[in-house]
Amino acid sequence: MKRQSPSTESSTESRTAQILLIALALAFLAFFLMLPLIAVFSEALKQGLAPFLDAVSNPDALSAIRLTLIIAAISVPLNMVFGLAASWAITKFSFPGKNLLLTLIDLPFSVSPVVSGLIFVLLFGAQGLLGPWLSAHGLKIIFAVPGIILATVFITFPFVARELIPLMMEQGKDDEEAALSLGASGWQTFWHVTLPNIRWGLLYGVLLCNARAMGEFGAVSVVSGHIRGETNTMPLHVEILYNEYDFVGAFAVASLLAALALVTLVLKTVLEWRFDLHSGARH
Amino acid sequence: MIRVQNITKRFGNYPALHGIDLEIQPGEFIALLGPSGSGKTTLLRIIAGLEFQDEGQVYFNGDDVSDIPVGKRNVGFVFQQYALFRHMTVADNIAFGLTVRKARRRPAKAEIKARAEELLRVVQLEGLGQRYPGQLSGGQRQRVALARALAIEPGLLLLDEPFGALDAKVRKDLRRWLRDLHKQMGLTSIFVTHDQEEALELADRVVVMDHGRIDQIGTPEQVYMEPATAFVSHFVGETNRLPDGRHIRPHDFEITATGSDRVIVDNVFRKGGSWRVEGRLTETDTIVEIDVDAHEAPPTIGETVTIAARRARTFSSAGDR
Questions:
Q1: In a shared domain, residues B93 and B121
Q2: Closest alpha carbon to A258 in A109, A84, A116, A56
């Protein structure tokens, strides 16, 4: 009996540690995530529903919402295609420069968004590298919608690829080779074999990509020019309202963004659950 | 007839195959046997068109298919891990090769269905067509993979370590069954294995490979009884290599008073239908393994006996890599 006591002791000890860690994590989450989230919604609804609805249906707010949706609608499909192509290339082929490509995919994560925005200003701005050529042809990129799209595409590029590369690496290329050996074309192989194998991972990546595309502030702020009703996205609009002491308005629009985050979270959880179910079934 | 001529392949700086020549007659069942890194799987994949050689040619019935990709070679390939499409039912997996055909070559839906049913019967999985691969056992998955490969009526069936992922009992049953199927359907088949027993049991001819070269091509009998190189002698069956350069199989030794080599017996145990005696040559301390007929009394541990070789082989150093 005496011999067993140290192990029992250590297991009670680890149970205490377990409870402590869980409590700590929960407290942290409550303080840094739940509290702000509650604050956003309560601030937004502080003066009742009517001012909230007014703030959300204000023409400038509507324009910001519309622009944000347009940006996401363009950049997310683009990055879905880019991400798929990059993951495919990296996992199914070996070629020189593969590691460089892997590093480059991560670049938007490692560079400050403000710097990313500045890069585009330096390239396409009036004083930029391509500025004179662009203005000679009547094209406006910086302080216009194309600039915002470019910056958003750049910032959100890694999400899909980062999700797919480990998944496709793990799956190997046996399935694709089997399909090809049975006479399937490359397109048929992609459509009937690869895509079903990665669908949940892809959807998950797209979801994260979308959340960031709608929520990006730094890079978009640099290239947008903050023209109300024209180049203001939702996050930029929130900042403007806040700086103008329109707290209800700022928090009302912010609560829409927060709601988006919540929806993303729920979808992500559902997807992970399905994903586990799916991968569980194959083993 | 399949002809492989002077195939060379490198992966970066690593030479996988050098100057491989091989001819396979219609209806043959061929084993590519070798340790890992011998190039056997690479050769199989080059014959399939999943990999391309740096030099040399592959001919199918006299046609040069060297640059033709796998989908146009009409080969059935069975992968080591089966590579079944997990989101498709077993029947859809089997029918895949037919459903992806261009419209003018594609059989009617009912015909495809009937063909899948028929193949399910052939691989003895009737009634499991609506299951998913995840719901099958390893042996069943392997048979689905085989049925899927056979659905396109391949001119050549290629199997990469077909029994590697199965447990011993299933493996043995499946082996015998595959051999029968090969004969019944009149297939020409090549399979890769590192298991000499599997190769000797199944194949009409065994191709023994080592370090990207073919050491010997022959019937199981030839490869076992007349190994061409020291490597083959060691890899196929067991061999004692004595300090004087002789290679002697355990069952080619006999314990006899008139023997020339003295051996101290370290261990005696049952091995299949005979006794296995492990000992050391007294002069050089070389470990030797000797088989003694089960009906005879084995020596006791610690005893010193004299042995003679009924049959021994020596190999020139050129063949002894």
A1: yes
A2: A56
> Which residues in chain B are closer than 8 Å to A281, comparing Cβ atoms?
86, 132, 134-135
Of A177, A193, A283, the CB nearest to B85: A193
- Residue A172 corresponds to which amino acid? G
Please give, rounded to a whole number of angstroms, the shortest distance from the CA of A207 to a CA of chain B: 22
Helices (H) and strands (E) in chain A — how many of each?
Answer: 14, 0
pLDDT at A39 over 80: yes
Among the listed residues B248, B255, B292, the one whose alpha carbon sits nearest the alpha carbon of residue B270: B292
Q: Which residues in chain B are contacts of A202 at CB distance < 8 A? A: none
ipTM over the 0.90 cut-off = no
Check whether residue B305 and residue B282 sit in a common domain. yes
pLDDT at residue A158 tops 80: yes
**Exposed / middle / buried, residue B219 (Cβ in 10 Å: 0-12, 13-18, 19+):** middle
Cβ pair A92, A173 in contact under 8 A:
yes
Find out whether B163 and B175 touch, Cβ atoms under 8 Å. yes
Å between B100 CA and nearest CA of chain A:
6
For residues B134 and B86, the answer to whether their CB atoms sit within 8 Å is yes
Range of B120's domain?
2-230
